[in-house]
């Protein structure tokens, strides 16, 4: 059973990592904690759900659509509500994001009711391999998450745009003096972060149910991962996600399902006590 | 002449005597009827009902209210309370927002301001316990819809509960499991109040039915992954899985049981929860098939008047009733039936009539335990400092329902005998064992 459990942990961890990459990107570049990230994932889940139900689009194929739509949502949010608070105190930003979260949840409940929805007739194929059972949807979700995270990593580390992004995250004023269009980079980073929420949303529809408050399940885990991996560290989010996935399934298997979140939060508290800068961040 | 006159007089006298006698007889007969002091004419009978009608539990409270309203309307349409000269029943509704304090104060307001003579409420045990403290203090009979064993275990005289709760659903589920030959079982339940209590009750009951519990675990409500728990169940390979889960978790459980090829002979959910939700069938589709539910009422169970209730409810509210609407409808029936038999609006007379209840209705027979009878649903309750339960329905009104071809159908018990009369209950045969996922081709 142990290899199966470890496999589960890694697979679920990849998806957790993807929920956290968008969050960590926005946090790194803009210093804004997007508490509504989980709820934007929820919106993407509904987009995927309706594409599947109305037009029969496979959830994996709807990734580009939900990513582009969510990018547009992200840019709009950035231009309208995020920009005014970018230099405001953290508390104001948090209150705004909390407001956005409540707004999105109620909007979804109003538009699509509180009913639980699933992609009907969409089930994973189960592969048996050396006594291990792998569900195709989980494997595909994991691989997609892995590819997207690595692409993002390369984009940020190896391209000119990525350099500008990193500059804005390290020292906004110096970046501006070097000719970086700070507002534009910030807007693009926010849009990209939300587009990642879109990708995560599409993937999660194949694993879980869709309902207006589903975002809460993912935002809590994503926040822990962001801190575990180091704020703004994309590679850290991937490692953090997989660690969290493993901690969760191991606690659930060897201790009790009831206590799996406890396992995660024990790690979280220890981390805040001993390595608040994150596991993968070099101490300055 | 004198003879003639006297004869005539005699005839007159006799006639007068006869007339007087008849008149007196009628008068006396009449006087006998209204021999007691004259009583004011009862125009209406006020019944109070308190539910959570706003806040997160509002949809459930609303369903209960509909059940009560339907019964009141039926009684009024059929001519009101006949023993009170056709007095109409007036329902006074209050909202407790599932707040225990508000539940008590609203109940008190209904009694002191609205002058209600009977009470129905309140869905959650948390708000029913304080409300019935108030009805007891004022001596107002209360027919409750709430699950806690403590409600009837406080030595109160004015509290009655007709429908079944956690002990009965668990007990009947185990009777069923024993009958189909289950030897080992795993318990996987939601970590909320209901799941926690159910787990404790099931663990205590299992040995009495010769069933060994090989694994027992709680999981958090709204979890996104049940695979570690299900893999443990797979490792222990029990005959039966006994589960309590709310809707998303119930759906996730079925989905992941298929993915990890977890096979059991039977999956039974005592109390229903998410498994008993129509959404479970709608979203679960083929995965939901074969699941069994031990529940206190089912729309197709063959109890008297059940079909009429389902039909009438569906006509009025444009949707089929669920167990929540049913328990409230049943409570209203019990209370109004007692008022009819009491022929009085005196709460103590209504209480006497409730104590004498011995009837059978849409969810099975009803007869209440009396104070001093030392009735207990389970000896285990002594650990909870409950010595006896008064006003508890002595019958275990629980049926086992199975999902067959996308429908909930009653499969057990097949029939029951009540006062020498055999009543067919099940509408189909149970499909047991549940085939493996491979056999089902899923």
Kindly describe this structure.
The complex is a heterodimer of chains A (284) and B (442). With 284 residues, chain A is an all-alpha fold. Chain A has a single domain, classed as ABC transporter involved in vitamin B12 uptake, BtuC (Orthogonal Bundle), CATH 1.10.3470. Helix content of chain A is 72%, strand content 3%. Chain A has a two-stranded antiparallel sheet. In chain A, helix 1 packs antiparallel against helix 10 and helix 6 crosses helix 8 (182-204). The longest helix of chain A has 29 residues, at 2-30. Chain A is globular and about 60 Å long. The N and C termini of chain A lie far apart (42 Å). The mean pLDDT of chain A is 89. Chain B is built from 13 helices and 16 strands. In chain B, the strands form four sheets. Chain B has a seven-stranded mixed β-sheet, with helices on both faces. In chain B, strands 2-1-3-4-5 form a five-stranded parallel β-sheet, with helices on both faces. In chain B, helix 2 (58-77) packs parallel to helix 11 (323-342) and helix 8 (247-259) runs parallel beside helix 9 (278-284). Chain B starts with a helix and ends with a helix.
* Broad shape of chain A: globular
The CATH topology of the largest domain in chain B is: Rossmann fold
Which structural class is indicated by helix and strand composition of chain B? alpha/beta
Count helical runs of chain B: 13
The CATH architecture designation of chain A is Orthogonal Bundle
Give the domain tally of chain A.
1
Main sheet record of chain A: 2 strands, antiparallel
User: Got a strand count of chain A?
Assistant: 2
Distance between the termini of chain B: 116 Å
| Number of domains as seen in the coordinates of chain B | 2
Oligomer: heterodimer
Distance between the termini of chain A: 42 Å
């Amino acid at each position: 059973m142990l290899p199966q459990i470890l496999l589960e942990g890694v697979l679920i961890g990849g998806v957790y990592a993807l929920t956290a990459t968008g969050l960590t990107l926005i946090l790194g570049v803009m210093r804004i904690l997007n508490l509504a990230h989980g709820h934007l994932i929820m919106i993407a889940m509904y987009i995927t759900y309706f594409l599947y139900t109305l037009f029969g689009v496979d959830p994996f194929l709807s990734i580009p659509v939900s990513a582009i739509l969510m990018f547009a949502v992200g840019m709009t949010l950035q231009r309208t509500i995020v920009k005014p608070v970018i230099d405001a105190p953290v508390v104001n930003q948090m209150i705004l994001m909390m407001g956005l979260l409540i707004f999105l949840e109620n909007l979804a409940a109003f538009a699509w009711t509180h009913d639980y929805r699933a992609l009907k007739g969409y089930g994973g194929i189960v592969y048996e391999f050396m006594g291990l059972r792998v569900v195709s949807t989980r494997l595909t979700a994991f691989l997609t998450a892995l590819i997207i995270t690595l692409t993002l990593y390369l984009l940020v580390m190896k391209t000119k745009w990525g350099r500008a992004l990193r500059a804005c995250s390290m020292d906004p004023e110096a970046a501006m003096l070097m000719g970086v269009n700070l507002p534009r980079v910030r807007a693009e980073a926010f849009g990209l972060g939300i587009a990642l929420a879109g990708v995560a949303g599409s993937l999660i529809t194949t694993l879980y149910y869709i309902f207006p408050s589903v975002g809460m399940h993912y935002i809590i885990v994503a926040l822990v991962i962001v801190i575990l991996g180091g704020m703004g560290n994309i590679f850290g989010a991937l490692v953090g996600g997989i660690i969290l996935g493993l901690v969760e399934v191991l606690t659930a298997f060897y201790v009790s399902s009831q206590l799996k979140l406890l396992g995660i939060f024990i790690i979280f508290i220890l981390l805040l006590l001993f390595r608040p800068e994150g596991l993968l961040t070099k101490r300055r | 002449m004198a003879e003639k006159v006297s004869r005539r007089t005699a005839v007159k006298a006799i006639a007068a005597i006869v007339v007087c006698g008849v008149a007196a007889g009628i008068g006396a007969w009449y006087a006998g009827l209204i021999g007691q002091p004259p009583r004011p004419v009862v125009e209406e009978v006020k019944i109070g009902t308190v539910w959570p009608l706003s806040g997160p539990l509002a949809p459930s409270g609303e369903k209960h209210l509909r059940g009560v309203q339907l019964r009141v309307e039926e009684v009024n349409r059929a001519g009101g309370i006949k023993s009170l000269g056709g007095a109409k029943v007036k329902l006074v509704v209050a909202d407790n927002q599932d707040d225990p304090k508000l539940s008590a104060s609203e109940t008190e307001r209904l009694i002191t301001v609205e002058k209600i003579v009977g009470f129905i409420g309140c869905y959650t045990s948390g708000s029913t316990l304080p409300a019935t403290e108030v009805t007891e203090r004022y001596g107002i009979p209360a027919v409750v819809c709430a699950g806690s064993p403590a409600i009837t275990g406080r030595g109160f005289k004015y509290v009655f509960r007709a429908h079944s709760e956690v002990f009965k659903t668990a007990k009947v589920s185990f009777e069923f499991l024993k009958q189909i030959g289950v030897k080992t079982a795993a318990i996987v339940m939601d970590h909320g109040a209901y799941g926690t209590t159910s787990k404790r009750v099931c663990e205590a009951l299992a040995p009495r039915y010769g069933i060994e519990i090989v694994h027992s675990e709680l999981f958090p409500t709204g979890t996104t992954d049940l695979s570690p728990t299900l893999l443990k169940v797979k490792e222990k390979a029990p005959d039966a899985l006994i589960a309590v889960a709310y809707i998303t978790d119930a759906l996730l459980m079925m989905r992941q049981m298929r993915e990890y090829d977890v096979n059991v002979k039977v999956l039974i959910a005592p109390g229903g929860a998410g498994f008993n939700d129509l959404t479970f069938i709608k979203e679960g589709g083929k995965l939901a098939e074969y699941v069994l539910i031990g529940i206190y009422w089912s729309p197709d169970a063959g109890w008297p008047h059940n079909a009429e209730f389902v039909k009438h409810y569906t006509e009025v509210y444009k949707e089929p009733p669920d167990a929540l609407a049913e328990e409230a409808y049943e409570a209203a029936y019990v209370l109004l039936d007692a008022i009819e038999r009491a022929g009085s609006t005196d709460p103590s007379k209504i209480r006497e009539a409730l104590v004498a209840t011995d009837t059978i209705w849409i969810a099975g027979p009803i007869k209440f335990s009396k104070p001093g009878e030392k009735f207990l649903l389970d000896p285990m309750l002594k650990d909870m400092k409950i010595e006896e339960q008064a006003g508890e329905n002595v019958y275990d009104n629980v049926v086992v329902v199975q999902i067959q071809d996308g429908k909930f159908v009653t499969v057990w018990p097949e029939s029951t005998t009540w006062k020498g009369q055999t009543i067919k209950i099940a509408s189909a045969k149970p499909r047991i064992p549940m085939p493996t996922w491979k056999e089902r081709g899923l």
